[in-house]
Write a structure and sequence with these properties.
The chain has helices spanning about 20-25, 45-55, 70-75, 85-95, 100-120, 150-160; strands spanning about 10, 30-35, 60-65, 130-135, 140-150. By secondary structure, the protein is of the alpha/beta class. The chain has a single domain (about 10-160), classed as Carbonic anhydrase (Beta-carbonic Anhydrase, Chain A), CATH 3.40.1050.10. The protein has a 5-stranded mixed sheet with strand order 2-1-3-4-5. Helix 1 (about 20-25) links the parallel strand 1 (about 10) and strand 2 (about 30-35). It is globular. The relative contact order is 0.17.
Length: about 160
Amino acid sequence: MKKPVNKKLFFVCPVCQMEQFIRKQFGDVYFVTAQAAIFDFEDAEFTNEIRSFIKNRSITDVYAACDINCNFLNESMHPSALHRLRWEEVIENLRTSYDSVYTLAEKLVRRQTRLLKRNLGLSGRPGETKVHGLVTSKSNGIITVIYTGSQAELFAINRN
């Protein structure tokens, strides 16, 4: 396997098949996948493996990404179709009756970035691994940055 030149790691849903879309935008990068891009950062073994991977590969940027066309996300908009799987429960706890698929994707990415920072100890300070959150629409070729590093950086991005 060819090692990616970019030191970026993306957390995505495998069903969304976002890898080519992300590579087109960010170059050759690493991926970790889970249903609906919901990862169990409370699992010590998983967290230790990810932490080790980040350190051993000198990862500079970690991205939590969610596509608005994700089947899991869209299915969760219809609670009667749910099967009580872990990812469904996480989404159901985030979802309100006012949410659209986009706002739900945004909430999910914000949750994942918080967990990445807290459970992996990623502070985003200068010289350390930065955490980013993306909501995408692969079908429309759109990537929206909803979180990058700190709220101050997010504010600066939105102001321009």
